TrEMBL record:
<dbReference type="InterPro" id="IPR003607">
    <property type="entry name" value="HD/PDEase_dom"/>
</dbReference>
<dbReference type="InterPro" id="IPR037522">
    <property type="entry name" value="HD_GYP_dom"/>
</dbReference>
<feature type="domain" description="HD-GYP">
    <location>
        <begin position="113"/>
        <end position="313"/>
    </location>
</feature>
<protein>
    <submittedName>
        <fullName>Metal dependent phosphohydrolase</fullName>
    </submittedName>
</protein>
<dbReference type="Pfam" id="PF13487">
    <property type="entry name" value="HD_5"/>
</dbReference>
<keyword id="KW-0378">Hydrolase</keyword>
<dbReference type="GO" id="GO:0016787">
    <property type="term" value="F:hydrolase activity"/>
</dbReference>
Length: 360
């Protein structure tokens, strides 16, 4: 059985083949993403528009090419165990802080290295990040998720390995100041009063004060903690910094923080689909979050959702064929052999990504 990628003329494609790498048109625009399973309708459209081109594909023996369901399940379980271990490490650090004990930089570094080495497969990372978790584990798991997302964005921005290691440390610790905030305020299901919001805003400075006292910590790590709620237009907190006065770690962690918070269930809001969140970030935070960092994040994140299975608002399951750069919440979806352009069919939306079921 064939297992390698092969280049096949469009006219010779047949149903069951799997797209091995993104297929581009003459303008460099992705027409169809990696991992899409070709059917007769897709092939017909390709023959109509690109008869002279070829496509890199895998073959129809999907269980020979992709890992079996059991292997995939085991990979996800292993990843979930690693995420839980790091999450427990964050919980341990927060317990130490409550006991007025300084966190260990050795522990923080070890967790950062584990995340950097274990989640180079971004699809696996996103599977874990978007998995629902108990509300009482939110803060520590949020810190882990923000660290993974920050690592991903740091790599997309071509930071050095050492910079990414320090970024991961800063992201893991970005919310440690919340240990000193009343939990009733943190978990309040209704709108915060002005006094309560001012109390919440103190967590950045509190976290900075705690982190800078950790022996042998690099000076840039506390800065990311301090500045992850700053905005480039000066409207953020706690210092009201703008543009280049905000450390790059603060800019990166801000983006990861928003994405994970909005795609998570909280006492005061339901989780949103990553597509809606990416679109919201693209529009509502433009001019507030560093433009280059934000556009890099949105562009790269959207690419990883092509080929993923989603549940639509009409209850049907579909596969994302192509993201829509101008409307990220409305991708082109294949349901059976039918294409649904959600930017045209406005009454249908993406409800959620379908996670692989696991039982740990």
């Amino acid at each position: 059985m064939r297992k390698n990628r092969i280049l096949i003329p469009i006219e010779d494609l047949y149903p069951g083949l799997v797209v091995a790498e993104p297929f581009f048109d003459s303008n460099g625009v992705v027409v169809i993403g990696e991992g899409i399973i070709l059917n007769s309708k897709i092939i017909s459209k390709l023959n109509e528009k690109y008869p002279a081109k070829s496509m890199s594909v895998l073959d129809e023996y999907l269980d020979e090419i992709f890992m079996s369901k059991e292997n995939k399940k085991q990979k996800i379980i292993d990843a979930e165990i690693k995420l839980s271990n790091v999450s427990n490490g964050i919980k341990s650090i927060m317990n130490d802080i409550e006991r007025k004990k300084r966190p260990s930089i050795k522990l923080v570094t070890g967790m950062s290295v584990q995340l950097m080495e274990s989640f180079k497969d971004y699809n696996l990372a996103l599977e874990g990040i978007l998995r629902e978790r108990p509300v009482d584990e939110y803060t520590q798991r949020h810190c882990v998720n923000v660290a993974i997302l920050s690592i991903m964005l740091g790599r997309w921005l071509f930071l050095s390995d050492n910079e990414i290691l320090l970024l991961a440390q800063s992201a893991l610790l970005h919310d440690i100041g919340k240990v000193k905030i009343n939990s009733n305020i943190l978990n309040k299901p209704s709108k915060l009063s002005p006094i309560e919001f001012e109390a919440i805003k103190k967590h950045s400075i509190i976290g900075y004060s705690i982190a800078k006292e950790i022996p042998n910590i690099d000076t840039c790590v506390p800065l990311g903690i301090l500045m992850h709620h700053e905005k480039i237009d000066g409207s953020g907190y706690p210092l009201g910094l703008s543009n280049d006065k905000i450390h790059i770690f603060g800019k990166i962690i801000a983006i990861a923080d928003i994405f994970d918070a909005m795609t998570s269930t909280r006492p005061y809001h339901s989780r949103q689909s990553p597509f809606s969140v990416l679109e919201m970030m693209q529009h509502e935070f433009w001019g507030k979050i560093d433009t280059f960092c934000l556009s890099t994040f949105v562009k790269n994140m959207s690419m990883y959702y092509e080929g993923e299975i989603v549940r639509l608002s009409n209850g049907k399951l579909g596969q994302i064929v192509k993201m829509n750069p101008s409307r990220l919440s409305a991708p082109l979806v294949m349901v059976g052999e039918d294409f649904i352009d959600l930017s045209v069919e406005n009454y249908i939306t993406v409800s959620e990504l379908v996670s692989f079921p696991i039982d740990t």
